[in-house]
Amino acid sequence: MDALKKQPIRKLRKPAEILKLNPERNPYSTRIFEYADLIWFDGVESARSDLKNIEFLHGPLVVDLGCGSGNFLRQFALRYPEKRFLGFELRFKRLVFAAKKLKKGEINNVRLIRSLAEVATEWIRPGSVELLHVNFPDPWPKKKHRKNRLIQPAFLETLHQLLMSQGRFVFKTDHQEYFQSSLEFLQGDSRFEVSHLCHDLHQSEIENIPTEFELLFKSQGLPVYYVELQKI
């Protein structure tokens, strides 16, 4: 059983349910239908009903869990047009913004998935990910809420399953406690080795593509914490 599925998982609305939402309260809930060629929001079985989607998912893949408005994915995909990218996101507005950027740039090597990170293994074939990013996830700072964090020991089981041999995982955050507590188990798992570790990314020479959040933190002079693991 996928270790991440032990965490509480919310049920997502089906397309028919999304259409019933009041567009005056959230106009982006219906606008995602305008980008159905880029956004998959009807479940993995529906996505796989299209042969082109199956071919896309075959990999190798670069995955962004929590892709936000797509600035990071857009820049990454432009830099590496030969690669295939998947971005997971829940918020309608962010998905629409990301799809608009992809359309405007005529970027065809990215697909967006409205789904929870906790069920990524339902979408992605084991051993097909060459690089997986988690950029600035919700830190759930209160101690009683930390069980909701994405990066925790159980996550390493899913990570090991998804990554191909020598595949890489990159974690960036501005939250020092989240980073330090994560390092305790990230560095201790013998199935991975730490290839890069940095407590102030923007003062390092590590190649980096910034996210929207990251640019904000940088403008405020705040450090960004960075760790990269490689599957052995």
Element pattern in H and E: HHEHHEHEHEHEHEHEHE
The total count of strands amounts to 8
Contiguous uncertain segments of 5+ residues: 1-9
**What is the fold-level CATH name, i.e. the topology?**
Rossmann fold
What strand order characterises the main sheet? 1-4-3-2-5-6-8-7
DSSP summary: helix tally: 10
CA-CA gap between termini: 22 Å
Biggest β-sheet strands, sense, barrel: 8 strands, mixed
Helix content: 25-40%
Label the structural class. Answer: alpha/beta
Write down the overall geometry.
Answer: globular
Summed over residues and divided by their number, the pLDDT gives a mean of: 90
Strand percent estimate: 15-25%
CATH class: Alpha Beta
Per CATH, the architecture is 3-Layer(aba) Sandwich
What is the assigned CATH homologous superfamily? Answer: Vaccinia Virus protein VP39
How many domain units?
Answer: 1
CA-atom Rg in angstroms: 17 Å
